[in-house]
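Bit of a strange request maybe. I'm writing a small parser for structure token strings and I need a real example to test against, not something I typed by hand. Could someone generate the tokens for this chain?
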Amino acid sequence: MTELDKLQQRIIHCRLCPRLVQWRENVADEKTKRFQNWKYWGKPNPSFGDPDARLLLIGLAPAAHGGNRTGRMFTGDRSGDWLYRSLHKFGFANQPTSVSRDDGLKLKDCYITATCRCAPPQNKLLPSEVLNCRPFLVKEMELLRRVKVIVALGKIGFDSAVSAFRLLGTLDETRNLRFSHGAEYSITNGPTLLASYHPSQQNTFTGRLTEPMFDAIFRRTRSLLKTTNSPKN
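Reply from user aminoacidic:
Good idea to test on real output. This should exercise your parser:
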């Protein structure tokens, strides 16, 4: 078992945040009508993907009836529909949809993680819960040594990436990185950071995030992976 595998096992068994533990387990017990026949995962979602990936995706947290049900990030919810469709278009996934952990999805040159591994009530995380999960992200960024591009989905994912860079000593405390869709930053001795609106229903239903806008993020990612020197900002 690799260090990355061992880390995911620790994540699955984490119970550091009492509020999140209670919520995720209650949701798994009560379920929702359309998924009454499912056996919910009800635990923290481990990260997954290609351990030699050059692309790292940082999301927010599992959905109550998405990842908290299926046990895999962005699997079985509307955000995942958008994400895997775009990843497939640009060659990072072998299929455009993901509905369960055993549906055959394989990521290529891509690894998916999150700011927080447990589904939060009303999709709102407490600052303490974000901090409790932060060491897992930092350790992953240490272990994923081939990463060249990080795509942060949403401002919280972006802020998590920035905080992790600072903890790793690869981002100067005086440098101010601001979130906006399409923002791009080169990190000294580190990967390029790309920011995207999160493909949540709040963003996609309102048109704040369109499919061409989302695809542009992964088109730019592909471009960055073709060259070693493409700094911006």
